[in-house]
Amino acid sequence: MRFTDTEDKLDYSLWIGIDGENSWFGDGQVTHQHRKEWAQYRLSLGTKPSLNTPRIHRVDIELGI
Q: Are residues 43 and 5 in contact, defined by beta-carbon separation less than 8 angstroms?
C-alpha cells in the first residue's frame, strides 16, 4: 500500500508492506501507522499451476479515520 495527504502525491509515494518499503501485506496483516487521507493498494496475481485463472474473492481495507 501507499499513503499520502493528497491524491496528486500518490504517484510519488513509496509502496510499503509488512516489512517496510517494497514489501507486501498478506492475508490478515495489518498496519496502523499511516494517518493520511489517501491510500492506494496494488494486488499481485498468480496461480499454481500457471494455466489457471486467478480469482479475487475479497479485499478488505479498514480505515480508522
A: no
Distance CA(11)–CA(40), nearest Å, equals 10
- pLDDT in 10s for each residue of the chain, 65 residues: 888 999 999 999 999 888 888 888 877 777 776 778 888 888 888 888 778 888 888 887 776 65
Give the domain range for residue 13. 2-40
Domain total in the chain: 1
Q: How far apart are CA 17 and CA 21, in angstroms?
A: 6
